[in-house]
């Protein structure tokens, strides 16, 4: 649903674009006719993050051209039919037909014609709007699809990102959908900081990270440290599985109001040369202006040590690591890498971390707190059960303990009971140890 302001805004914008195209067509079909002044574009973006960029008239027009198939699918076809009522084509306007959408889809050639006509110098100037360093490309707003091999670059279809589309139509940025184009999932939790039982040193380090998220921009901008301090913050979480690395990242986002996206490395890493960089580029482009926390779990797959070059595959694998190093270093938000072992991470990354946080297995006192916090309040224990003794006897991680509690609670529910005995705990712990091929 459009809100009323945006609806009125878009109607005016469509009308302006129609006038611009009509003027260009008049110039083409009636070259001797005196040219009118340029049509003013009244369309303005919603007052959100994109608006910090001062859009030029040409940039507004490109956005409107990209927007038309989504808000008024017959827009270009109607213009063509008005000029060719008996039917026909107008190749100077560019455009292609989609597989499912049979209407006119604008291309780079469409943009060139509407903004520059036959003016060669102006066409070169307009084509720069699709350079990789332009605001559109850097922020993953719109781009040209790769054309068929051998065909002109500007014949590629004009594509606007789904995030930018929602922004322009609804006045707000929607969350991207998980998939090949965006291989990351939003992670959330109902737990609180007090539910994450850690030693004092690790807890203090996490508090430092929270301080950076809340005050980092003030330090860079208001305190004029941006010339001395690089943007963004890079962190390594390392330690055995189940010690709270993912939960810590999620809680950092929860308590600072930031979305935390966990990257699915199986979808990022590709066996095809060049595809991994492409997948990473899409991911970082989507995240750049959102101030997300990016969480790479089991980061060894991407951030592992570079190998000696034995063949072409090794060469490109090392290039992927180098590209990733550069991209992580220029990301303005927080990037968290998680690994079971610090030594598995390439030393070039380690040198660039502002913080390295170790998550050890919990000690006896911490294990006891986790046992006490995890059991539902409805549960009762037989007299033989001692959580203090259990915490001392069995070296389990927080994740292990949650699994054991889940198992014994389900067993109690299956018996229609609310009491747990010593034997229930032993069997569940034994099962948990067996998963890791450990003896009880």
Task: Give the arrangement of secondary structure elements.
Blueprint: H1 4-29, H2 57-71, H3 75-83, E1 96-97, E2 104-105, H4 108-116, H5 120-127, H6 135-138, E3 142-144, E4 158-160, H7 162-170, E5 184-186, H8 200-222, E6 233-238, H9 245-256, E7 260-263, H10 265-268, H11 275-287, E8 293-296, H12 300-303, H13 312-330, E9 334-339, H14 347-350, E10 355-358, H15 364-374, E11 380-381, H16 387-393, H17 398-414, E12 419-420, H18 422-435
Parallel strand pairs: 6-9, 6-10, 7-8, 8-9, 11-12
Antiparallel strand pairs: 1-2, 3-4, 5-7
Helix pairs in contact: 4-5, 8-9, 11-13, 15-16, 15-17, 17-18
Would you kindly provide a written description of the structure presented here, covering whatever features stand out?
The protein is built from 18 helices and twelve strands. It starts with a helix and ends in a 5-residue tail after the last helix. The longest helix is centred in the first third of the chain and has 26 residues, at 4-29. Helices cover 47% and strands 9% of the residues. With 440 residues, the protein is of the alpha/beta class. The chain has three domains: 4-170, no CATH class; 184-358, Rossmann fold (3-Layer(aba) Sandwich); 364-435, Helicase, Ruva Protein, domain 3 (Orthogonal Bundle). The protein has a six-stranded mixed beta sheet, with helices on one face. A two-stranded antiparallel sheet has the order 1-2. It has a two-stranded antiparallel ribbon with strand order 3-4. Helix 8 (200-222) crosses helix 9, helix 11 (275-287) packs parallel to helix 13 (312-330) and helix 15 (364-374) packs parallel to helix 17.
